[in-house]
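Hi F.,

I've been meaning to write this up properly since the lab meeting, where we talked about keeping a consistent format for the predictions we share between groups. The idea is simple: the sequence comes first, exactly as it goes in, then the C-alpha cells exactly as they come out, then a line or two of notes. No screenshots and no reformatting. I'm using this chain as the first example so we have something concrete to point to.
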Amino acid sequence: MDTTQLEGLRLDFNEVSLESMGVHMLSGTVDSDTIRDATTFVLKANLLLSDDITLVLNTVGGDTSEGFALVDVMDASRLKVKTIGMGNIISMGILLMCAGAKGHRVMMKNTCAMAHQFAAYTEGKFHELMASHRSLMYLKQQFITHFLRHTTMTEKQINDIMFAPTDRYLSPVECKKYGIIDHVIDELPEFNLDGGFADVGTAPRRSKGKK
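Output, unedited:
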C-alpha cells in the first residue's frame, strides 16, 4: 500500500489532503462554491499554520465579486500565498494569479492565459441604467488598481491588454514580461522552499535518477 510519512504518522496516501500540506487547488469556474473553499482554506491556514501556503489555479474565470473576495483575503493573509498556474488561467483567473506573493507566482510552461473585458447585462429605467453604468465604471477601476498593484503594467498597458476589444491570449513568457507572474517552470516546485525557481530554458533540470 502506498504510504507517506507525515509528522511522524504513517498514513495511507489517499488520507493525506493537499490542504494538510498547505496547498489548495482551485479548479473550474470562479463562483461561490470554489471561492468559499479557497477563502476557507486561507483563513484556516492563517489560524492554524505557520508556513507559507500555496494556491494552485486552473480556472476559466467567473464571477468578479467572488474573485475579489479571494483577492482581499490573499492580500490580508499574514502568511505568504504562493500561486501556481496551470491549464487555464483565464479572465478572473489572471487577477487571482497575480495576487500571489511577489517572487512566488509561477506558471507551468503550457498554461493557456487569456484576458478580456468583463461582461455585464442590465435593464431597467433610465436612472437604474445610470446606476449600473457607475457600478461598472467602479468595477473597471478596481481592475486597474489591482493590476497596478500586482503587476508591472502601466495603466495604458492595462487598458490595451486587459481591456482589449477582443480576447487577448498571453503566453507564460508574456505573463512574466508584464509582471503577472515571476517564473515559468516545467517542474512543480517543492512547496516548502522559499523560491529558488529556475525558469524554463535558464538552468539545467534536476536529475531524475533514482537512489
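Notes:
Residues 98 and 127 are 36 Å apart (CA to CA).
The longest helix spans residues 126-150.

If this format works for you, I'll send the rest the same way.

G.
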